């Protein structure tokens, strides 16, 4: 590994996990990865989406609401202690119970001194065969933002958010230099042969493009392995956690089928270099983006009023 | 070539040109490509950015303003006749003189019956070493839109626009099923060895991601060849005109160094399929994109007011 200047150097850890039905087993696996991350000099460790359980959204079952917990709460308390003990920032995706009958898909951001900095509630909620998230999660109401941590200004988004340029843009405009995406994405086994390669490439393409469009790093952390908690063919999560550089290039990619801690060293000075050599932020037409907040622009118009000025 | 259903089948032509200093020579080359396109059953032909001249923006020279012309005007009149004669839609990027001292980088959209449908004025204007466009072109004031042509609902953007997810999104929201990007992008020869591959990949990545995020086709048409109208090392335009499918995959790519007409057959029925299988448009958080129209969000905020409702 090249020796990097300490002031611009950030070592991120991607905890690629094969999540089990047993909560305690997942928590122990996460703790083991946190310990390893600490030993290997990681500044920020990101856990995969909903790492404390199997991906229960394969089925609409009211029983699964019992998995939810308050945030902050017992789990974040425990993780905060670990963050403090090991002096690393933790990004932990959890199933949040906000009130009776009100649940979110949420990530907690815990600073390297153990401080609970806040949470991101997944804004874009999918609903597709075996990804029945709209049954469980109310869409987030905290918007897009970033957090000032001891390891730098970090943004957090979750899984389905990764398909939305608006989410990445807003998080970057809030100052994030690294976007973390805890994720649970995989194949329907019966579709894998036909469209599996294309699907995984598209997943990576979208996020690499966010890195490029905004001149930020993107760190995407996925679970892996086959899970069929609802019976049937289940889902095969494709791992392949990766890091994209501010120029959109692929900096690191984990294998599809391997549990463990994967590392990348981010040279944060490349952000300034990328943004001045490809000065996209300089030229945004902020006077002309009216309509982005609309569902569809089916009304016949010859031009935007806001562009006529 | 597979036989496609006529109602969902669109044959696009990408006119990859090596543009010369001589206007007439470029016009003749374009006419030749239009004729060939007609013979090969093309429905929409897109010419590269500013195809009537060398890429004069390598130098800030007032003399080049003499290249500009009104739109509509003599060139669009001539091209309209050709569009009508050959029954194809033409997208023609021209240097527009709007008034004394007021110029735009503009594309005219000419329907297959010769009708001048309107124009798109490049909204995002670059300014980088040897790409001194801010000297010549006032940023567009017509906003983002699409045009109903005899070959379908088409969107037009130009070169530097291709780095902006907002531009692609708005054009798609206006109903465009295909986004055309007339382009003039190339390498600084002295940089090519070190960063050339990455630059071209990033260029393709950004546009493929627009196709994916919006479930549309993207057709990017670049010039190629070395040009040094301002002396010095000049620029080496990298050709590689390409088409991306609505799933972000690369459908066709032209070589880096070959003049000619390149074709792709677009199955427009894939748009509905892609958008229902990957329903990104369904889940956009239009209540939460406030801030996109801001330059930067450096004010400390805990959440967006619009997300609190």
Task: Give a structural overview.
2 copies of one chain form a homodimer. With 309 residues, chain A is an alpha/beta fold. Chain A has a single domain (9-277), classed as Nitrilase/N-carbamoyl-D-aminoacid amidohydrolase, CATH 3.60.110. Chain A contains 6 helices and 15 strands. In chain A, the strands form 3 sheets. In chain A, strands 5-4-3-2-1-15 form a 6-stranded mixed β-sheet. In chain A, strand 3 (89-99) and strand 4 form a beta hairpin. In chain A, helix 4 (165-173) runs parallel beside helix 5 (189-214). The first copy, chain A, is globular. The model of chain A is unreliable at 1-5 (pLDDT under 50).
- CATH topology descriptor of chain A: Nitrilase/N-carbamoyl-D-aminoacid amidohydrolase
**Model regions low in confidence, pLDDT < 50 over at least 5 residues of chain A:** 1-5
Quick one: how many beta strands of chain A?
15
Largest interface: A-B, 64 and 64 residues
Taking the alpha carbons of the first and last residues of chain A, their distance comes to 53 Å
**Distinct helical segment count of chain A:** 6
Structural class by SSE content of chain A: alpha/beta
How much helicity do the residues of chain A have?
25-40%
Largest pleated sheet of chain A: 6 strands, mixed
Oligomeric state, counting identical vs distinct chains = homodimer
Indicate how many domains the architecture of chain A comprises: 1
Q: Tell me what portion of residues of chain A adopts beta-strand conformation.
A: 25-35%
What is the string of SSEs of chain A from the N terminus onward? EHEHEEEHEEHEEHEEEEEEH
Tell me what the CATH architecture of chain A is.
4-Layer Sandwich
Strand order of the largest sheet of chain A: 5-4-3-2-1-15
């Amino acid at each position: 590994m090249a020796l990097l200047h300490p002031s611009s150097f950030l070592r991120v850890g991607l905890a690629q996990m094969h999540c089990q039905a047993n909560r305690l087993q997942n928590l122990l696996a996460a703790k083991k990865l946190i310990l390893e991350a600490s030993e290997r000099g990681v500044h920020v460790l990101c856990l995969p989406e909903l790492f404390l359980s199997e991906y229960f959204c394969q089925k609409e079952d009211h029983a699964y609401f019992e998995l939810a917990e308050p945030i902050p709460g017992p789990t974040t308390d425990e993780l905060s202690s670990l963050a403090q003990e090991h002096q690393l920032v933790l990004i932990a995706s959890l199933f949040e119970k906000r009130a009776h009958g009100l649940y979110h898909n949420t990530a907690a951001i815990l600073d390297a001194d153990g401080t609970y900095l806040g949470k991101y509630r997944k804004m874009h909620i999918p609903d597709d065969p075996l990804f029945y998230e709209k049954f469980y999660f109310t869409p987030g109401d905290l918007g897009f933002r970033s957090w000032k941590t001891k390891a730098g200004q970090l943004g957090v988004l979750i899984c389905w958010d990764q398909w939305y340029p608006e989410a990445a843009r807003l998080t970057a405009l809030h100052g994030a230099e690294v976007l973390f995406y805890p994720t649970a994405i995989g194949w329907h086994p019966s579709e894998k042969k036909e469209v599996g390669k294309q699907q995984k490439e598209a997943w990576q393409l979208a996020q690499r493009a966010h890195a490029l469009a905004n001149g930020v790093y993107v760190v995407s952390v996925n679970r892996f392995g086959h899970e069929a908690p609802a019976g049937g063919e289940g889902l095969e999560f494709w791992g392949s956690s990766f890091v994209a550089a501010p120029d959109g290039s692929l900096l690191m990619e984990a294998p599809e089928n391997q549990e463990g801690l994967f590392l990348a060293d981010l040279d944060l000075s490349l952000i300034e270099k990328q943004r001045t050599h490809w000065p996209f932020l300089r030229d945004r037409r902020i006077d002309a983006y009216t309509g982005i907040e609309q569902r569809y622009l089916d009304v016949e118009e010859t031009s935007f009023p806001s562009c006529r000025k």
